[in-house]
Amino acid sequence: MPVVTIHLMTGYDAATRRRIGTALTNAVAGVIDAPPEGITVMMPEMDPASYMRGGAPRQPGAPRPDPAELVRRFLETMEARDLDAARAMLAPGFTMTFPGAQRMTTLEELVAWSKPRYRFVRKTYERFDSLQDGQTAICYCFGTLSGEWLDGTPFDGIRFIDRFEIEGGRFTRQDVWNDMAEAKARSA
Amino acid sequence: MPVVTIHLMTGYDAATRRRIGTALTNAVAGVIDAPPEGITVMMPEMDPASYMRGGAPRQPGAPRPDPAELVRRFLETMEARDLDAARAMLAPGFTMTFPGAQRMTTLEELVAWSKPRYRFVRKTYERFDSLQDGQTAICYCFGTLSGEWLDGTPFDGIRFIDRFEIEGGRFTRQDVWNDMAEAKARSA
Amino acid sequence: MPVVTIHLMTGYDAATRRRIGTALTNAVAGVIDAPPEGITVMMPEMDPASYMRGGAPRQPGAPRPDPAELVRRFLETMEARDLDAARAMLAPGFTMTFPGAQRMTTLEELVAWSKPRYRFVRKTYERFDSLQDGQTAICYCFGTLSGEWLDGTPFDGIRFIDRFEIEGGRFTRQDVWNDMAEAKARSA
Amino acid sequence: MPVVTIHLMTGYDAATRRRIGTALTNAVAGVIDAPPEGITVMMPEMDPASYMRGGAPRQPGAPRPDPAELVRRFLETMEARDLDAARAMLAPGFTMTFPGAQRMTTLEELVAWSKPRYRFVRKTYERFDSLQDGQTAICYCFGTLSGEWLDGTPFDGIRFIDRFEIEGGRFTRQDVWNDMAEAKARSA
Amino acid sequence: MPVVTIHLMTGYDAATRRRIGTALTNAVAGVIDAPPEGITVMMPEMDPASYMRGGAPRQPGAPRPDPAELVRRFLETMEARDLDAARAMLAPGFTMTFPGAQRMTTLEELVAWSKPRYRFVRKTYERFDSLQDGQTAICYCFGTLSGEWLDGTPFDGIRFIDRFEIEGGRFTRQDVWNDMAEAKARSA
Amino acid sequence: MPVVTIHLMTGYDAATRRRIGTALTNAVAGVIDAPPEGITVMMPEMDPASYMRGGAPRQPGAPRPDPAELVRRFLETMEARDLDAARAMLAPGFTMTFPGAQRMTTLEELVAWSKPRYRFVRKTYERFDSLQDGQTAICYCFGTLSGEWLDGTPFDGIRFIDRFEIEGGRFTRQDVWNDMAEAKARSA
Question: What is the pTM assigned to this prediction?
Answer without folding.
Answer: 0.93
